[in-house]
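User: Could you check the structure of this?
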Amino acid sequence: MTSTRPAGFNELLHFPVRLSIVSLLAPAAHADFSYLREATGLSDSALSKQLTTLQDAGYVEVRRTGRRATARLTDTGRNALNQHAHALRALLGNALDSTPAGETTAVNTGNPS
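Assistant: Sure, the predicted structure tokens are below.
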């Protein structure tokens, strides 16, 4: 089996913690660092490291005012998230569609039973 990735698949965003962060930022104009920390369950240092990685890629902008920090998804980050979401949908195809009641789908795993 070959592992081909659809166009738009983003390794940087596919990492679960970073995907969570950009997903939390997507509907918000700005999000407080404390909100992101609580929502992700990360320590301050772990969240800061992930935000720096996203910021270095141009996906997130972090603003600091005194002791308060906020983050926002940039247009580049929003575009990357949308492309990654489309790539995941293409990769999954109909896998998430429900199976009609009473029907079963057989899958050949290549392993003899």
